[in-house]
Amino acid sequence: xxxxxxxxxxxxxPGQSITISCTGTSSDVGSYNLVSWCQQLPGKxxxxxxxxxxxxxxxxxxxxxxxxxGNTASLTISGLQAEDEADYxxxxxTSSGTMIFGGGTKLTVL
Amino acid sequence: xxxxVESGGGLVQPGGSLKVSxxxxxxxxxxxxxxxxRQAPGKGLEWVGHIRSKPNSYATAYAESVKGRFVISRDDSxxxxxxxxxxxxxxxxxxxxxxxxxxxxxxxxxxxxxxxTLVTVSS
Lengths: 110, 123
Known about the structure:
By secondary structure, chain A is mainly beta. Chain A is built from no helices and nine strands. In chain A, a hairpin with a 6-residue loop joins strand 3 (about 35-40) and strand 4 (about 45-50). Chain B has strands spanning about 5, 10, 20-25, 35-40, 45-50, 60, 70-75, 80-85, 95-100, 110-115, 115-120. Chain B is mostly beta strands. The chains are: A mainly beta, B mainly beta. The interface between A and B is medium-sized, with 27 and 25 residues.
């Protein structure tokens, strides 16, 4: 099964908003409300940012939000800050009972 | 505090075997599924597989890329999960993370990751 499709890179200036897309199929992203997003800072371990399509873990900044339409999920980061510069991965539960990740998107804060 | 600590990584020749471990603490390990995720150098995350808890018959599932070569097991008395890797290929070179899943079924997102253990397959 191929990875979910994410743009390789996105960029934005401090204070701006950016959106990262994650496209799958009706067997994964489109099947359940079970898309999650994680952030991986350089040299660090992934960190959960969003789960169940659009829920934020307790304590996470509300600058991070997510949505989904059909087979495409999206992560939006508003009020960009330098500390947001990282790789972002979407992940989905699949109808086969497995998990699948996106290829990752490198966010550059200009 | 929930903590996962991987160990056992190292250098192995193509065709060889290696077993890595994931020691858990700070939560009810026996009641949780456990997943393995890997990341090749400079590449993205790839789901490797999972093992469910005893009430779910310790059921396992694997990515197609490792099916038939990798086996996930667990020892609930030691709060430890294992990843046995056989017939290793150079493309299996990666950082291997264990991750605690949350949510329904076998887990649908990860709220805690270990620091990873590096497996290098090279002659």
